[in-house]
Amino acid sequence: MSQYLGAIRQLGYVVNDIEAAMEYWNKVMGVGPFFYNPRVPIENYTYDGKQYDVHNSVALANSGFIQVELIQTRNDAPSMYRDFLQAGNTGLQHVAFWTEDYDTDLAAMQARGYHVKMSGEVGTNGRFAYFDREYHPGTVIELSEVLGPKGKMFRMIREASENWDGKDPVRPFPNLKEAEA
After folding, report:
1. Residue limits of the VOC domain (predicted)?
2. pLDDT of the chain, 181 residues: tens digit per residue
């Protein structure tokens, strides 16, 4: 438990082949089902304060309370994921803390001297920020807002993992617009 943001809720792995990574997590780790989106609908994306059109594929599954996120970059837009790969890394890139009070938690982290390196939005009330501190690979902190449809989707993904029987190990990403209704 972090004294700043509560429990770590997600482990974010940057991979070169998301399909192979999903298969590994399913068959070797027994984790699933994964909900896969070949192009995450990120809005208002910034890296070092500049806007870019980023194309990432993401797969999400839960193992109990912890969500596993697999990320594959699909273009060369600047991102912390791209930086991670260019440094010769693959695997755990970040841990995410989920919040229902994004503005307060973001301000508290900034007051502690953390600076936002990468940010954007996934659906209404689905903002995220990655901070620029990294002790070693896997220690980047993401603050992820889970009030809106993204939060509903995360709950659905966790519920799908409970008593999962191994069938349909890869499923389509839920529609965030439908989750808003």
Report:
1. 7-146
2. 678 899 999 999 999 999 999 999 999 999 999 999 999 999 999 999 999 999 999 999 999 999 999 999 999 999 999 999 999 999 999 999 999 999 999 999 999 999 999 999 998 899 999 999 888 889 999 999 999 899 999 999 999 999 999 999 999 998 776 655 5
